[in-house]
Amino acid sequence: MLGYDRVALLGFQPAFVRKLHETFGDRLRVTDLNPGNKGKKYGVDVFDAKKCNKKIIQNSDVLVVTGSTVANGTFEDIMAMASDKRVIFYGTTIAGLAALMGVERFCPLSE
Questions:
Q1: What per-residue string of b and e applies to 86-109 under the rule 16 or more CB within 10 Å gives b?
Q2: Which domains does the chain have, with CATH numbers?
Q3: In what order do the strands lie in the sheet with 39-41?
Q4: 54-60: long-range contacts at Cβ-Cβ below 8 A with a sequence spacing of 24 or more?
């Protein structure tokens, strides 16, 4: 195991869902704000973020979170709910804020 038993992906991203599901299987939970992304995708249930984020965050060891949280107004709430979790952001929307705030960010193309 990679040191994490339960992983949450907050913000549906197909490539991440596929790869995280390969690695973590049924220990992966996914949420999204877009109603079009709800349901089963790539073998994983995608839950309504508004209804399920709190419980999923509480029951996860690490969070992989879209940088779009900055644009959609959910960044502060997620950070508050995840104060005792490892949070890894992804995407260009969070790049500047991540650098300024010192939050962890994954980008395979950055140095």
A1: ebebbbebbeeebeeeebebeeee
A2: 7-106 (3.40.50.11590)
A3: 39-41, 44-48, 28-32, 7-10, 62-66, 86-90, 105-106
A4: 54/81, 56/8, 56/10, 56/29, 56/31, 57/8, 57/10, 57/81, 57/82, 57/85, 59/6, 59/29, 60/6, 60/7, 60/8, 60/29, 60/85
Per-residue pLDDT for the chain (111 aa), expressed as one digit of tens each?
Answer: 456 689 999 999 999 999 999 999 999 999 999 999 999 999 999 999 999 999 999 999 999 999 999 999 999 999 999 999 999 999 889 988 888 989 999 887 765
The encoded tokens of residue 72 equal 């959609």
- The answer, as to whether pTM is greater than 0.85, is yes
